[in-house]
Amino acid sequence: MGCATVKSPKKCSQTNERRISPALEISEFKLLNHYVSLSLLGSGAFSEVILAKHIPTQSFRALKIVSKSKLTSQHFFSWGTVREPYILQEINYPGVIKFYECFDDLLNFYIVTEYCEGGSLFKKIKNSGRLSEENNVLIMYQLLKTVEYIHSHNIVHRDIKLENVLLACKQNIRIKLADFGNACHLTSDKKLTGCYGSACYLAPEVYTNSYDEKVDIWSCGILFYVLLSGKSPYSCKDPCEIKHLVNTSPFQLNDTNTVGFSSIAIDLLQLLLKIQPEQRISASDALKHPLFENISMNLDECSKDI
């Protein structure tokens, strides 16, 4: 099948880019007629996501509308195709939202994925308060399994945060990692550059010359801390101030900010939040941590009421 190109894309300067065989067709805009818009699910700097009904199958899906004018060269492969749907179609894993199709018009890309009725983990905690440590451990186990999978396929997410972890349904803690808009491929002989993601989840090495998949591990550590504490790791609110702290004095654990945490959870957090990326634990090794020793990851574990 063919692939759609943007009329005049900027040439991508990403040095780590690996050539993949385009195996996904970005269809014509007429496919939008197959969907009925129902409600707004969320919005961000580059896009908005709406709940839509797919008329041919009568199923509910998430329709992400990405404005072409807001994208940069880093969102495209060097030959002019947008990255996110091509990366999503490579992934077949229960911990990642299922990709259905992509189409475009002159102004937007439309990326269709499964709908997770439980909403984001961020909204769940905002509306219902902190979860139990037992549930937080189950969430982290699923997330690290998903990160292990994408890293094994040389994909780096670069925007792991509560807002991008979705609950498959309202009743339990089955999670799905979403929003691969900043994701990219990593090759064995190259590293990544560029600052992507939300300020408080950024790893300190993004301000050096290059970095690798360990930025996702740092983000997982910050996410785990927020789950356990219910607080942001940085006291200031301004993104520029937070980025300055990430660069000059990145978040670290102490007796004050870990009050009420179990010692075994603190131990894993310390491994996830090593400032030097080469000392930071991998997703595979994190899954072997004693915190997870009683979890047998059949999905029934996560089907209990949240």
UniProtKB/TrEMBL annotation:
Protein kinase domain boundaries: 35-292
Keyword Transcription regulation found: no
Superkingdom, taxonomy of origin: Eukaryota
Subunit description: Monomer.
Record-linked Gene3D superfamilies: Transferase(Phosphotransferase) domain 1
The protein's name in its UniProt record: Protein kinase domain-containing protein
Gene Ontology, cellular component aspect: nucleus
Binding-site positions, ATP: K64
Family, as annotated: Belongs to the protein kinase superfamily.
Keyword annotations: ATP-binding, Kinase, Nucleotide-binding, Serine/threonine-protein kinase, Transferase
Cross-referenced InterPro entries: Kinase-like_dom_sf, Prot_kinase_dom, Protein_kinase_ATP_BS, Ser/Thr_kinase_AS
GO molecular function: ATP binding; protein serine/threonine kinase activity
Source organism: Stentor coeruleus
